[in-house]
Each structure stands twice: as structure tokens, then as C-alpha cells.
Amino acid sequence: xxxxxxxxxxxxxxxxxxxxxxxxxxxxxxxxxxxxxxxxxxxxxxxxxxxxxxxxxxxxxxxxxxxxxxxxxxxxxxxxxxxxxxxxxxxxxxxxxxxxxxxxxxxxxxxxxxxxxxxxxxxxxxxxxxxxxxxxxxxxxxxxxxxxxxxxxxxxxxx
Length: 159
Hints:
Number of helices: 2
Number of domains: 2
Mean pLDDT: 79
Number of strands: 8
Strand content: 25-35%
Distance between the termini: 47 Å
Low-confidence stretches: 13-34
Strand order of the largest sheet: 1-2-3-4
Order of helices and strands: HEEEEEEEHE
Structural class: alpha+beta
């Protein structure tokens, strides 16, 4: 009987702690979904698995060009334009780049000559930037202008 009473007290304590935690949780955390920009705090992001994506247009002056997008273990994203050998552009030069990137994707639209960069942040929010392509290779100085307003969070990200 003593063992049963001890177990009952343990369950009561655990239930009380759970209820207290539910009452203390901020309303933003209880909203049910990820919110943009929570990764801008001072917490360290890594370690993050490394990911690579590429897009290779087969039209016009971009034929033979390869755009590569990658992450490092600290959650930073980088872009390489094969026309600018050895140069990896830290995407933080593009406005609204998330701080903790865990996955990347890249695609090129032939009809509009647009490079779409997609980043998944650690918080689960997907960010997308649409950058104009041209005859000039991307560099740290011209990429922010080519990407216009920069990265925008996609609404209702399901992850």
C-alpha cells in the first residue's frame, strides 16, 4: 500500500508541474505554428547538417551556368555563381535572410530569368527570395540589388 501511495504522489507532482508549465508558456508559443524571425536571438544555431542545392539554366546567356546554394554547420547560407569561380556569397547580404538555415533549394525560371532561393529556418519557417538573373555574375555587391526586397517568409508553413 505504501508503494501505491508513493506512486500517486509522484503522479500528482508531475501533473502539477505540467499544468504550471502550460500556464507559464507565452501565448506566442501556444499559437500553434512557427512565426517568422524567432532565430534572430543571441542563441547559437549550430551544429546544423550541411545541405547543397543547385540550379542549372539551359537557356540564353545563362546556358552552362550553375547556381549552387549551401549551408555550413553554423546555419549560414551561401550562394555560388559558377561564372564567378571560387566566390561563395554569404546570403546575409540579402535583406531578411534568416539567421539559422537548416535546408536550401534553388530553381531558375526560363521565362522570366529569375533565380528563386528557398531557405528553411530552424524554426520551421520557409523563406524565399526571387533574384533577377543577367549577363553579370552574382557578387556580394550586386546580389542584394538583384534580389529586390530580399527573403520573405512564406505564410502558413506547415513544418
